[in-house]
Every structure is written in C-alpha cells, then in structure tokens.
Design a protein that fits this description.
CATH superfamily of the largest domain: Response regulator
CATH topology of the largest domain: Rossmann fold
Number of strands: 12
Distance between the termini: 44 Å
Shape: globular
Radius of gyration: 21 Å
Helix content: 40-55%
Structural class: alpha/beta
Number of helices: 14
CATH architecture of the largest domain: 3-Layer(aba) Sandwich
Number of domains: 2
C-alpha cells in the first residue's frame, strides 16, 4: 500500500499539476440535498494532521454558518461535505472522485498537506474543478501554474525568504537545518534562498532524523555553532527530542519553524517551545485590531466559541474568499464560471481589510503575507 501510494503521488504530480481545463465541460448538476451549493473537502480528521484540519474547519464553519444564516448566496445555502482521508493519498483520491462525481461539488476546499493535495490533481483537472485553499506551502503545489488551484496562504519559500530577510537586523548569520527524512532537495533550496538574501548568511550544518540517534544529531549541530536551527520536520517526536537534547547539552541559540511545522509542536512538553521563532501566514488572531480578525472573532463568538487560532483564521478567510467567488459566479454557478470569478478577485475590487487577496488569470496564489512571532515561557505568542 505504501509503495502504491507513493507511485500514485508521482503519477499525479507528473500528470496533474500543470493540467488545463480538460474537464471544464463537466459541470455539477443538482446536489443530493436539492438546491444547496455543495463544496467538497477531503482532509485528515483522524490521522497525523488532524490537529491542523480541525481548527481550520472551525473557522470555515463559522463563516459558512454566517452566510447561511443571512439567506445564503442568491438564496442558496452552502453545504460543506468533509470526508476523512486520514492523510492517506489513496483514500484522498477515492474521496475526491465521490465529491466531484457523486456529490456534484462545485469546488474542492481546504485539503490538508502536500501529499493529498498533489495526488488528487489529475482528478481535479479531469473534472475541471476549482481546488481552493489547500493547507500547505509546499512547492509541489505552488511552483507550477495550474488554473484549477487557488491558494490563499504564503508558500514555505515565502516564509523562509521573509525569515532570512530579517537576519541582518537580528544579528543571525550561522544557519543549521534539521529534517525528518532525506533533506537533499531542501538543503539545495535553503542554499538558494540564502544566496538570494541580504547579509552574510551561511548554512553550516544539515542533519536528518530518520534512523539516526537524536543525541548524535544534537552533538553534530552544536559542534557547527549555529545561531539558529531551522526545524523542517513535521514529526513531533523528532522535533521534541532534538530540541530537548540540544537544550540539555547547553545550546542557547534560536530554533525556527514555519507556521505548519509549529503545529506539530503544539502538544509538546512546555520546556520545548519557549524561544522558538515561528513565521505566520495569517494576522495575529487574538487581537481584534485588524478588521478581518475582528470579523473572525465575532463570528466565532456567535457560535459560543472563545478559542482562536491562526489555522482558525485561515479557515475563516478561505471560506470568505471562496464565498465571494461563488457570488460573482452568478445565480447558476458552474465550475468554469467559478474559476473565472475567482480570477477577478483582487485588492482593487475586493475589500478585505487586514488581509489582501490578489488573483488574476495568470496568478492563483492570492497572498504572500508573512509575519514573525516568538513563543514565551508560558507558550504564548509574542507578536
């Protein structure tokens, strides 16, 4: 099964990521629930990425509930069908086929992780469906233009480039990196980004966690005397073990993670995360100074929810922008009309104060917003 899953991922990447609207004439018919506008989602609800899916969904549901309570879109309610794929590429393909062909989903929404997001692209392209707001920053989704794929979060490259641009002001020069698997491609990418960044930055070490003793890795990294260690693994076990081992051996430098890598550390022991630098691709969700954050908090309060999060805000914004596209697609939206409608959204004609979105017929990556936060001793964010 593992071999077949990896094979399917490779096939989908080759056949799917640059696909054109081969299936654009395959339009959704009446939904199984009458006149609802059906949106489909295959995401991890019970596997290793469930901690990402659930807060994202909470924010999305808050916005969709608001729309439906106000009469829907042109009198039609939005119905989000979410299927659990357990982060299994084979199951994601099956779910996607059912959502598009049986449930007649107008669009796909909020797939979590690069493996499932990439493996379903051939199915997406064959059916001409918009694939909106995948929760990943991986280059496999961002690099090649696909007219069906629309993102609203910055890519991992955007996050790293923003981090490196801040290094001169932070006095950081010596960089090390840690991955949970073969890091050759990531090492090449990091070197390229460092070369394009200001300041005298140097990659001094690169270590991989799979099959290695974490204490030996900690020794190797400390010996390289890095100012900051880039945590590029999504494994909570690896990340926690490495940080604890390096701290125990006296390392007092910085650790860094991207927004989604940090989610793997959410349930780590309290001594692991203090001092961790985290890049964020959404505005700070706990202070209602930004209009979009205020709107998000108010929608959550209406559902009697007082827990806010970056992923929750991301789900809220994703649902809001997709809804705007559906409105622009008219009273009888089709998949092709929705693609054209989404391409028309930009900061000049769509006011979303606090988080700008810019799409066009040649650019489907709606935002490059990145900010930096630091974790305190109590686990809170300093913005």
């Amino acid at each position: 099964m593992r071999t077949l899953a990896l094979l399917l991922i490779g096939m989908a990447v080759c056949a799917g990521m640059t696909g054109q609207a081969a299936g654009s004439n395959l339009q959704p018919g009446p939904s199984a629930n009458g006149d609802d506008i059906v949106i489909g989602q295959s995401a991890d609800l019970s596997g290793q990425h469930a901690h990402v899916t659930r807060p994202f969904l909470a924010g999305a549901h808050a916005y969709f509930a608001q729309v439906n309570n106000n009469g829907g879109i042109h009198g039609r309610r939005i119905r989000l069908i979410t299927m659990d794929d357990k982060n299994n590429p084979l199951l994601a393909i099956q779910n996607t086929q059912q959502l598009l062909q049986t449930d007649k989903a107008l669009a796909l929404f909020g797939y979590v992780g690069w493996k499932t997001s990439s493996v379903v692209q051939s199915v997406v392209n064959e059916n001409g469906a918009p694939f909106f707001a995948p929760v990943t920053g991986n280059s496999i989704v961002y690099k090649a233009f696909n007219r069906h794929v629309f993102t609203i979060r910055a890519s991992y490259s955007d996050e790293y480039m923003y981090l490196f641009s801040r290094f001169p002001g932070m006095g950081l020069k010596r960089v090390a990196m840690f991955t949970d698997e073969d890091g050759t491609a990531r090492k090449t990418a990091v070197k390229a980004m460092i070369g394009a960044s200001p300041g005298d930055i140097e990659l001094v070490a690169a270590e991989e966690g799979a099959g290695q003793d974490m204490k030996d890795i900690a020794d190797n990294l400390i010996e390289a005397r890095p100012d900051i260690v880039l945590i590029m693994s999504i494994s909570q076990a690896f990340n926690t073990a490495l940080i604890k081992a390096m701290r125990a051996k006296g390392y007092r430098g910085y650790f860094y993670s991207t927004s989604l890598v940090y989610s793997s550390l959410l349930n780590s022991p309290q001594e692991v995360v203090p001092g961790l630098i985290v890049s964020q691709v959404m505005p700070f969700p706990w202070k209602a100074q930004s209009p979009i954050v205020r709107e998000y908090q108010q929608a959550m309060h209406k559902l009697h929810v007082d827990t806010f999060s970056y992923l929750g805000l991301e789900g809220f914004i994703a649902a809001k922008v997709l809804t705007e596209g559906i409105k622009r697609a008219g009273r009888a939206p089709t998949r092709e009309k929705l693609i054209a409608a989404l391409e028309s959204i930009n900061e000049h004609n769509y006011k979303n104060p606090g988080y700008r979105i810019n799409f066009s017929d040649s650019n489907h990556h709606g935002s490059t917003y990145v900010d930096l936060t630091t974790i305190t001793r109590t686990g809170a964010f300093i913005h």
